[in-house]
Specification:
The protein is mostly helical and 176 residues long. It contains 5 helices and 2 strands. The chain has one domain. Helix 1 runs antiparallel to helix 4. The radius of gyration is 17 Å and the shape is elongated.
């Protein structure tokens, strides 16, 4: 696999593992969108999903040259901060199943690989004149596009769940 296709491939791995974690652990096991005490965690998931949706779609079709490279770098830094916050909140508010801990470990490793590959890519892009250029990674672009759409839709879904949980918290505080 060439360096050119490594970043999209790592993002796809991240999307697959993240989807497994979300569907299995957040939805089926913990049922987070239905638990008032998970309101903060669901809110963090909204931000994380939107961030990764942007990265998946942005890397699928574009080369972010010049100042645009800084934007992608900032989005990756935001993803790291959001993921760290999510880990902190999850571990303080619920007991995580062992499979979820393992999936998080793999996601953290993979995010490290993404950063290792992305730093020289962003450095090269930054040295170019500021332009958003089309990029194509073959089938990887299409898979990342599906992941981007799915992740952004899931972010909206979690936003609605978070809003509903917020209303429930407000109601319970009103009746207390």
């Amino acid at each position: 696999m060439s360096f050119h296709t490594l970043l999209p491939a790592l993002l796809i791995v991240h999307g697959v593992i993240g989807a497994i974690d979300t569907l299995l652990n957040h939805e089926l096991i913990a049922r987070l969108p239905h638990r008032v005490e998970a309101k903060r965690e669901v809110g963090i998931h909204v931000l994380r999903e939107a961030t990764y949706g942007f990265l998946f779609g942005g890397i699928a079709w574009f080369a972010w040259h010049g100042a645009w490279a800084v934007l992608i770098g900032m989005v990756v830094c935001a993803a790291v901060a959001i993921d760290a916050t999510d880990e902190f909140v999850e571990n303080r508010t619920r007991v995580l199943p062992q499979n979820e801990r393992m999936l998080h470990f793999i996601l953290i490793l993979n995010l490290g690989f993404i950063i290792v590959v992305m730093v020289p890519t962003l450095a090269g892009w930054y040295l170019q004149p500021t332009k958003l250029l089309p990029a194509y990674h073959g089938m990887f672009s299409w898979v990342l596009s599906v992941f981007a759409l799915g992740t952004l839709v899931w972010s909206l879904r979690d936003l609605l769940a978070w809003h509903g949980l917020r209303k429930l918290v407000d109601l319970s505080e009103t009746h207390s």
